[in-house]
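Lecture 7 notes: from sequence to structure.
We start with the chain below.
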Amino acid sequence: MSHFSKITAEIKDLDVLKKTVASMGFEFEENANCRYYYGTERKDFVIKLPGQYDVAITKNGDNYAVEADMWGGHVAKYVGNNANLLMQNYTIEKIKAEVSKENLAILGKEQQGENIALKIVDPETGGTINAVCSSDGSISWQTSGFAGTGCMKFQNLEKSLGTVEKTTYTSEYYAEEPETGIETVNEILSNE
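Predicted structure tokens for the same chain:
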């Protein structure tokens, strides 16, 4: 593999969040009342859940934060403890959206216990990315089959998913890139 990264998922894309909420079978409302244990409060964005409580989405810098009354387990039943299920589903939708922008293809989706793994391929190079979306809101990102630093062209994609906590480079990353037949500027200058 070329490198692997540990990413903490963050909600950055409201359109992807709306799509996620719809795919989970809930309604996403703007400028609506959010129901809490202590009463209701007007919020910019609300995920309407069945039953008595909802989830608010609040702006937090460049990201969005989940705000909910987790007491009693009602909200967790629908979006997971600490909204982990919502984050996991959002991450999968965000990866799908970003992959299509990068002209990549998703080859498969596999349930691995509570985690979901997506296998992504770069048709241009044949390199692959294995993205494991954990139930704790983190993403393990592993690239393989990219010569040298070729895997780094996906750094913006990694950053679009959240905060990249750690990147580890493997021997494949440090391997020489294949010859292209094009001389580098240094080779041209040294021949003169």
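Points to note: Residues 14-83 form one domain. The CA atoms of residues 47 and 89 lie 14 Å apart.
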